[in-house]
Structures are given as C-alpha cells and as structure tokens.
Fold these 2 entries.
Entry 1:
Amino acid sequence: MTDIPGYSLLGGVNTPSDLRNLRSEDLPHLAVELRRFLIETLGRIGGHFAANLGTVELTLALHRCLNTPDDRIVWDVGHQAYPHKIITGRRAGLETIRKLGGLAPFNHRAESEYDAFGVGHSSTSISAAAGMAAAFRVQQRKRRAVAVIGDGGMTGGMAFEALNHAGHAGLDMLVVYNDNDMSISENVGGLRDHSARLVQKLGLVAPHLVRLPQDGEEAVETHLDNPGALFRTFGFTYHGPVDGHDLDALTQILDAIKDARGPQLLHVITTKGKGFEPAEADPIKYHGVTQFDPVTGAFPAKKAAGAPTYTQVFGDWLCEAAERDPRVVAITPAMREGSGLVDYARRFPQRYYDVGIAEQHAVTFAAGLACEGLKPVCAIYSTFLQRGYDQLIHDVAIQNLPVLFAIDRGGLVGADGATHHGAFDLSYLRCIPNLVVMAPSDENECRRMFATGLSLNGPSAVRYPRGNGLGLAMEPEYKPLPIGRGRIVRDARGRRRPRVALLAFGCMVQPALSAADILDAVVADMRFVKPIDAELVLELANENDLLVTLEDNARMGGAGSAVNEVLVAQHHKVQVLNLGLPDAFIEHGTREELLTQCGLDVAGILRSVQKRLRARDLDISESARKA
Ligand SMILES: Cc1ncc(C[n+]2csc(CCOP(=O)(O)OP(=O)(O)O)c2C)c(N)n1
C-alpha cells in the first residue's frame, strides 16, 4: 500500500520486512525513490546530507539480506543513517530530525529497535559490533553483528583497536568498510592513499569473483593486494572492493558472506553525494546542509554578514599569529571546515596537519611538536576532546608543554544533540594541573585569550561557544591578559539589599548583564576558569548577599564549583546559587530552545535568582541587620 503520493514503492516500505517482500527487480526503483525523498526532505529542512545519498543502496542491501532487528547493524557516527531511519518506520518523522522533540540526529537506541547502538562520535562501530558478536557467542544465539564504517571513521584509533581484537578473537562478524574517499573534507592517511590507488588500479569487483573458502581450505580472496593485506593481518577475511551502488552486487555478496565464520570485511566503494550532481561535485559543502533548492542545489542568498562566529574569529587570529610567528603550527582531527581552518590550511600548508579522526593522536602529536620548540595550536571541538583526555593529562599537562587548545563548540551546540554538546569541558579541564582555562565573553576577549595562551610556557585552553560574537569592532591590538584575573563588567554599588553578584563565565556574561539590569546586580566576567580569580570571588562575597555563578557547562564540577571551593576554603558564609547545565544528557533542539529548557536564558536566570532570594528571605534580612 502506498501512503505517500509520488512514492509508489517507498510509500509501502514501513519496515525492513516490507523491503524483503519486494521483488529484487524493484529494488533499483526503490533506491531512486529513497534518494529523491532524501533530496526533497533535506532540501526543506536541512541536516546531514551527502553521506546519506551514498548509503542508499547499501542500506537497502543490508536490510534486505539481514534479519533486522534481530541481526544488528551498527552505523559508525550515524550521520549516514537517514536511509536506515526511513525504511525502519521513521519516514514521516524525518521531517522532525534534529529538532526539539523530533527524531534524533544519529542512531539512538531509545528511538527504534533497529538502532542497535547509539552513536554520534566516530570509529566506535567495530568495537560495539564486536561486543555484540561476543555476546551472541556466549549466549549461543544465532544472530549477526555488522558494523558499517566509513573511510573517515576508519582513521580513528578505536577502529584499529577493534579490528585487532576482533580478528584475534575470531568473532563471527562483518565489517562493511564504506569507502567514499571523503571524510568531511578530503580523507587523509596511508590507508586512504593505498585504497585510492587500489580502486584506481583494479576497478570494482563483480560479486561472482568472490568465493568463500570451503572446509579446510585457506581463504581465497578477490585480490591478493592491499588494503586486503592490512585487514588480513588483523585476522579478517577481506572481500572486495565492490561497487556500493550496485544493488545486485551488494545483495549477492552479502548473501554469500553473511554466514561466513570468523571476522569478515567487505570493502564497498561509494560516492558521497551520489545521485545529486551538486553534492557529488562538492561533497564538503553538502556534508551537512541548511535548506537548499532540491533541483539546483542552490542555497538561499546569505543575509548580510553579521557578527563573525567564534570559529571565524579563531581562524582569522590563527592566520595572523602564524604570519607573525613561524613556530605556530595548527592541528585538526579532521575538522578543517568546522574549526575555521580553511584559510589557514591554504595559506600555511607546511604548518597545517589534518591527522584524521584521531583526537588522541592529535593531542600527543601536538605535544611532540611542543617538545621541539614549535607552538602547536590544537583545534578540537569540546565534545571530541573527550577522546583525547588522557593525552591531554599524560602527554601535555604533566610535562607542562606549551600547547594551546582552541576548543570550539563549548556548551550547548543545538541540533547535533547529546553526543555533541560541549557540556563537560570546564569540569574535565579545570582539575588538570598546569592547564590555564579561559572562556571568552566576546570576540575581542577571545582573541586576547588566544594571544594569552600562545604567550604561555605551559598548556592552555580557550573554550568558546558555537555561534556568533557580539559584532564588536575588532581591536587591532590585543595584549595578553593577566593570568587568573576576572573583571567587573557591571558595577552596582550602593544598592538596596539584598545585594546580588553574578559571576559569569564565557558566553553567560551577556545574559547575566541583561538579568542584572532587572536585579540591579553586579556582574563579573570571570574570564578564567583556572586559575580562578579567588581575590575577586572573596571581594564579591564580602560585598554581596548572594553570589550567582553562571556557566553553560555541567553544574557538577564546573566553574561554579571552582567558586564554591574558594569560599569553602575561606569558611565564607555567603549564599551561593550555581546555575549551569543539569546532571542529565540534553537532547537536540536549537541552542536557544535548549538554553531556555536548562533555565539559562535571561528569564530562567531571573526565575532561579528570585526563587532563591525568596527562599533565603530570613538569612538575607539577618545579614542586612548585621551590616
Ligand atoms: C570522534 C569524532 N570526531 C569527529 C567527528 C566529526 N565527523 C562527523 S562525520 C565525519 C567524517 C566521517 O567520514 P566517513 O566515516 O568517511 O563518512 P562519510 O561522511 O564520508 O560517509 C567527522 C569527522 C565525529 N563525529 N566524531
């Protein structure tokens, strides 16, 4: 039964069983409809795009050949899993993806029984599928575990750790290596170079060339050349490469290998953006999109340039810094575009390293550069630096090496949701000895903080939010800041009691200023999370009845906790209210919606402060009497 006009086949596919009931000759047409549905829907709402066009046939083939949901498909990252969502009962919901209360941006176990594993960060799929395969072995269950990982995802260390272990353990599992020769930007690495050469040399392999080993026979493989050799070394049987847009080829080979014993790897070649000419021509631009014209691919004309984003502020500053100082080197773990490094990479190719999706390596690589007298600037999103945490402590901070971390996407990021919010960085950074941690309240502050970090002889981090600065005129000169000193940005001496001081960190300074106008409160831009300005904290504690700390980081262990620690150490009795993110994972929505949800917009701040003031009536009148 068709339930959407214009989609005679897709309209009838509400579960993978519907797909399995179709005639195989209908599958190519279903792929055409699925691709058209993606283009039309995403043209209207935006979202991850080019990677999804590349997985249309692969998704159909996997669900056709496997017995999902009992068989598990683990998608790496999950940004390419829209076709999977569509054919697993979430077609109508796609309209809501990434929106507040809508479908999750990536695979999410709570959303569907077909989402075998929650994702968002890359390179986890082989480990997770290996765990599932091992569980099936223990439980003696006949189920299949399949990981689908891109060539970008394959650059992450975890992928290799998992191959190494799964190969050794001889697990019955399949890794589908979806090779489109692209990460978000061009993919990098030795495996990529080899794979690209191989595909060029041999072309794609017809499925009938793949023959499974018979009992007692050594594996016979399609090619005795690399990269098969690499995967064989790990203990995997290598199949391919196969054209990942040829449904016949895919279904034949999957049927042939899905019950093979031991770890199998199927190398599939796909085109990112497949079937939509503008996206095939520029997969970087169409990796993630806002609304676009589904016929021409054109994006609506950009509004007049507003305030620069913090990402742009960083990119511009870095170019200036590199011009001035030949020791400056930039490192990105596969996030050139997102981190604002496109210009820098073009202008300073000799001092630019995209290391692949390898945050751990990025951090220790920066440490090595610093050992030899260079000035590495490691640009990493807050959420992805979680991957490099031990390296940050063990390789950078213990050795007190001068690496500057430019930590983008601190705080709530919006539509990418729980896996991507930079909700924990202030907590996980501020407990590391030697590390200076700064959070800018505007774009000039941000530049000053970068300059401060670069001038230090030890490690430092500047943590800034997604989105725009305030649109301030850029100061041409920016001097390093005195370390560990905040500043008062709104004074309110001589007011009536109770006296309130807002101690704001980073982008919370702006809402604090707005709330302060109503509360007649003092506002401090604390600037440094570490070292915290203890002198300023105590001064404010002595002059006020209530201190309110404000941060877009988890309340637990965050910047507010740093303020609490100062007060406790001095046995100070001032009332304190810590505002920040709750002890919960925040899902997706716009950044503004989520800030409101967490009570961190102006109205929310006022509500919390007024509630506390009411609750503390007695204490405050008592302290007022004493004063
Ligand atoms: C740990 C981590 N670092 C960075 C990212 C950001 N990221 C999302 S998709 C992607 C590229 C993935 O490339 P690939 O696996 O080849 O998939 P493709 O988009 O080419 O289909 C990156 C770097 C991430 N999700 N996780």
Entry 2:
Amino acid sequence: MSNKIISLKTTDVRFPTSDLLDGSDATNKDPDYSAAYLELETERGDVGNSLIFTIGRGNDICCDVVEAMGQQLIGRDLDTITTDMGLFYREINSDSQLNWLGPHKGVVHMAAGSIINAVWDLWARVEGKPLWRLLADMSPEEFVNCLDFKHIGDALTRNEALAIVQKNTATRQDRIAELEKNGYPAYTTTPGWLGYSDEKMQRLCREALASGFKHIKLKVGESIEQDIHRCTLAREAIGDDTRLMVDANQAWEVDQAIEWMEHLQPFKPWFIEEPTSPDDVFGHKKIRESIGNIQVATGEHCHNKVMFKQFIANDAIDVVQVDACRLAGLNEILTVFMLAAKYGKPVCPHAGGVGLCEYVQHLSMIDYVQISAEIGERVIEYADHLHEHFETPIEIKNGAYRPPSAPGFGVRMHQSAIDQYQFPDGSEWQKRLATGPSPH
Ligand SMILES: [Mg+2]
C-alpha cells in the first residue's frame, strides 16, 4: 500500500526571548528565537516535522521558500523516496531556478534542509525508531549511499567513506550500549550570554558545575576590559579544572582576533569560536597559527559542505561546529562529519536556539556509532531554553545527553506552543500587539 505525501504546511513560530536577553552576543543583540516549522502529512496519517532555526525577522521568508521548494513532494510515495535517500537529497537540491538564489547557500539551502529533515523524521516515525538508531542500524553501503560527494571528491571519496564505516561495523553495538549507559557529553552555553549580569553569570556557572557539566562557554567580543572581567569571574566560579570556551560571534578582524586572544590567554580558553567572518578560511588559518595552543572553532554559519572542505582540509580550524539547520539536511551534515573524521577533526555541533539541541543529539550519536567511533574530546553544545515546547524534549543527565528513545528526529512541537507563539496571530503576539508597540 502506498503512503503518499498529501500535504505540506509551514508555520512562522517566534519566541520573545529578547525580553530577557537570552541568546545575546557580540553580534546578535536581541534575538527572538524562532522556528520556520514544517509539517508533512501522508495519506495514511503519518506526520513528519522539521524546523529552520532563525532569530526573528526573516523567519517568514524561510517558510515561503520551504513552501515553494516543497511542492514537488506532494503526491510522492514515502517508500519510493526512502529507497534511495541519496537520490532524494540530490533531487531536492537540483531545482535550478531556486538554486539561482544560492546556489547551495542561504535560505534556499536551509529550505532544502528543512524538507529533507522532515522526510527523515517521517521515515523514522514510520519505522518506529529514533533517528539516530535508524542510521546506526544501516549497513555501511546503505549509510554511505545517503551521503553526497559532489564537489568534495578531491578531499573525500565514496570509497574512503565506505572504508571508514566498514572499519567500525564490528564494534558498533558496543558504542550503542555505551550511549545507552552514559549518554553523550555536553557543554553548556547557558551561563554565558553577553547580556547577563555578573551575578547571574556566576550563579549559572556554579549551577552548571553542580549539575555535572565540565565545559562552559562565554560570549566575548564587545570590549577587552569586559571580557577580562567576565573571564575572571567565570574562572572564580568554575575553578581551573573546568574547560572554558569563548565565542566572539564573528566580531573581530583577523589581526584584532589575534591580539584579543593574547589578552584572554591567561584564562586558558579551550577554544575561540567564530573569531571572524564565517567565510574566511584564510583568516581562520592565520588566527589558528598565531594564538598558541588555543584551538579555533567555527561552523554554525558555514553554509555548505564545500566551505567545510576548505576549513577542514586546509587545517584552518581545530573544532568543526556543524549546524543542524544551515546545511541541506541530514545527508549533507553527515557528509561533513565524514570529512572531519578523515582529517582527524572533532565535530562539536552547534546548538541552543530553539530545537537545535533536539536535533544535534542525533547527529553526534550517529557520528559516534558509524563514523568517528570515538567521543574523545567531543562535546555537544547545550543551552537551557525553550525545550518545554517540544513533545520529546532533550534529557540531560550528569552533563550528558541521554540517547533519545522516541521515534523521529525530535523537533515536533506541542500544538499549544504553536497556537501561542505563531507570528503574528498567536495569542502571545496578539497580546503584545494590543498592549505595546508593534513587535518588529
Ligand atoms: Mg556560537
């Protein structure tokens, strides 16, 4: 019996997080964490969901592009699509007219990712498996067939990827058991938002330590004096044994980053994240070679696998921070994990926002089982915001993500949250419109 996709619906959902400066950093002063939310439904009543994370204005544009690109799904049978997810990835990414707006970057690429991730969610739900297990249970050939090597074949071939997965197959059940037992380590960004007071930052640092985190990240980049002050207070709260990371959110020129990090060197940051433009491979390499043993991390704004190839294969960064919504879905994300594995770079996915934690836990677990086969120093980002709006929110225990057990990719929202925060017709936004200035 067929299971054709019969409808596609997007919703612009925005949360007024700028009220409390959650998510504030040197570049993004007042984010309203938002989701361009997608629901696919089949003729049998199965529903698949995905979201694109944005920080407010423009979320509606993402919805519009998903609607435009997703029409090709209507009438297609799920079984036919999932027979060859690699082919499906290429089909979704080959709309030449829409690709003129990219190609393979920006809103069109994020929209492709949304459509592809919703189908992965749908498939995992129909199979009754959490997404990470759907991928963990694939044979090496099935797994590698989901990847895409176009324009990266000079750095990674299909045969090399296949060899990496084949080498791990005999031991993968051990790693699944390890995940079920101990989870996957996380680091927290919750204390570090730039808009938080000193007292709030120190209190949240102490709370993070008490709940088992061993890594804490602070936002930096507005002023050297402020950063030295905040790093001093953070070190006071967390001691010398906890890892401290810093994130400049693209604030600096290349030479400025090098000078700035000299001032932060005494606080022993484990890495500096997004020191400069996210497109600047040359600049990251120069920074990396100029700041001693502080590692350089980037990737949350890296817009496709070809950019990642340049950062990774050129040794321009140490830590790869793939984002769940910026690339064209799971297929491209796993291809980046594979590139990183070949070149010996750890992937520590970007998360926080809304729904990103729910997404990326699956990615790192798939990586551990099928690709890198080690955790080593890898950690998944975590931030304590907005999880209550999801049907199956993440679970953190002793500073580690518990492996998800519910079927799917994990980003289905409660209908009540959508009703409240849909923009601008949801009850929360209507209340604001009635009582104050127009919300953006
Ligand atoms: Mg960041």
